[in-house]
C-alpha cells in the first residue's frame, strides 16, 4: 500500500552545494587525491600480503580482508560525491539511493565485525601465545572472516528494505553527500518510530557491541603486556597492537559520535564532517598506518619492490 503513495522517483543530494564553486573545486581535488591514495594504498596492502611469504600469519590475512572492505566502502561513497562537486550532478535515482545505502550498511557492518575479529586475533596471540597456532588455524581464520563479511547482509537487507518501503511524498532533498539512513528517513511521510527503534538496536549490535568487545580485548591485552618481564617483549607486543588500536580509535570515535548523538545536538554540516572522517579519511589512513607503523610490512614491501625490479632487469630487452 505504501508503495502506491511513493511519488518520489529520485533524490537530490545537498552534499556541499552551500559552499562557493571555488571551494567545491578545492574539495574535489582534495577528495580525488584521498580517493586515489586510498585505492592505491589498499591495493598495495593486498598485493604485498599476498605476494610475500613472511606475511602469512592470521593478522595479515585479516588485514587483507580489511583492505578489500575499505576499497568497497570507498567505491560506494566517493565517486558519487566527486560527481556532485565537479559536475554538480546532485540527483540520484530512487534505486540508486537504495543501492548506495545497502552497500554502505553492508561494508560498514562487516568492517565493525572484522575490526572486532582482528582484536580477538591480537588477544589470542598475546594472552595465549602457546595455543595461538591451534586456535587461529586456517579454518578458524576463514570462518571468522566469512562471518564478518556475512554480518553485513542481514543489517543491510533489513534496514534498506524497510526504509524504502515507506512512502516518500516530497520533498526529496537529502541533506548529506550520500544516502545515509537518518537524512533519508527524515523525508518519509509516515510514522517511523518502530523503524527508528530497530535502527537503534542494529546500531548497538553492529557498532557499540563490537566496540565493547574490542575494548575488553585490549584491557586483557594491556594487562598481559604489563606483566611481561622483558622490555623487548613489551615493545614487540605493543608494536603488533598499536596499528590496529589506532585504526579502531579513528573509525569508532567518529562512527559513535555520528550515530549515538541526539538529532538536535549537531548541525547537518557537522554530521557531514564526521561522516567524512570514517567514510573518506579513515580508509586512506588505514594502509598508511599499517605500513608505516609495522616493520614487517615495510620489510615485505621492500622485498616485493626489489624482486620486481630484479625481474625487470633480468628480462631481455
TrEMBL record:
It holds the Pfam family 7tm_4. Its main location: membrane. Keywords: Cell membrane, G-protein coupled receptor, Membrane, Olfaction, Receptor, Sensory transduction, Transducer, Transmembrane, Transmembrane helix. It is found in: Cell membrane. The chain crosses the membrane at residues 25-49, 61-82, 102-120, 141-164, 200-222, 243-261, 273-292. CDD domains: 7tmA_OR10A-like (cd15225). InterPro entries: GPCR_Rhodpsn, GPCR_Rhodpsn_7TM, Olfact_rcpt. It comes from the Eukaryota. It is a multi-pass membrane protein. Residues 41-290 form the G-protein coupled receptors family 1 profile domain. Belongs to the G-protein coupled receptor 1 family. This is Olfactory receptor.
Amino acid at each position: 500500500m505504501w508503495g502506491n503513495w511513493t511519488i518520489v522517483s529520485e533524490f537530490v543530494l545537498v552534499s556541499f552545494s552551500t559552499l562557493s564553486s571555488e571551494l567545491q573545486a578545492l574539495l574535489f581535488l582534495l577528495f580525488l587525491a584521498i580517493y586515489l591514495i586510498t585505492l592505491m594504498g589498499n591495493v598495495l596492502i593486498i598485493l604485498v600480503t599476498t605476494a610475500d611469504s613472511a606475511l602469512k600469519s592470521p593478522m595479515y590475512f585479516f588485514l587483507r580482508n580489511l583492505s578489500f572492505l575499505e576499497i568497497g566502502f570507498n567505491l560506494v561513497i566517493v565517486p558519487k560525491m566527486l560527481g556532485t562537486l565537479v559536475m554538480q550532478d546532485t540527483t540520484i535515482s530512487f534505486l540508486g539511493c537504495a543501492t548506495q545505502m545497502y552497500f554502505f550498511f553492508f561494508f560498514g557492518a562487516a568492517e565493525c565485525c572484522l575490526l572486532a575479529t582482528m582484536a580477538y586475533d591480537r588477544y589470542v596471540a598475546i594472552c595465549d601465545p602457546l595455543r595461538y597456532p591451534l586456535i587461529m588455524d586456517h579454518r578458524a581464520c576463514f570462518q571468522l572472516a566469512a562471518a564478518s563479511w556475512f554480518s553485513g547482509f542481514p543489517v543491510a537487507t533489513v534496514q534498506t528494505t524497510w526504509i524504502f518501503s515507506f512512502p516518500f511524498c516530497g520533498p526529496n532533498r537529502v541533506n548529506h553527500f550520500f544516502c545515509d539512513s537518518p537524512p533519508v528517513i527524515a523525508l518519509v511521510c509516515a510514522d517511523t518510530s518502530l523503524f527508528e527503534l530497530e535502527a537503534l538496536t542494529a546500531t548497538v549490535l553492529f557498532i557499540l557491541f563490537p566496540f565493547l568487545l574490542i575494548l575488553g580485548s585490549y584491557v586483557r591485552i594491556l594487562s598481559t603486556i604489563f606483566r611481561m618481564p622483558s622490555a623487548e617483549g613489551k615493545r614487540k607486543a605493543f608494536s603488533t597492537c598499536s596499528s590496529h588500536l589506532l585504526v579502531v580509535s579513528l573509525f569508532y570515535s567518529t562512527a559513535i559520535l555520528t550515530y549515538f548523538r541526539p538529532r538536535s545536538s549537531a548541525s547537518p554540516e557537522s554530521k557531514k564532517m564526521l561522516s567524512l572522517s570514517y567514510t573518506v579519511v579513515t580508509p586512506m589512513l588505514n594502509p598508511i598506518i599499517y605500513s608505516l607503523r609495522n616493520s614487517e610490512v615495510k620489510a615485505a614491501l621492500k622485498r616485493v619492490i626489489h624482486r620486481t625490479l630484479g625481474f625487470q632487469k633480468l628480462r631481455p630487452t
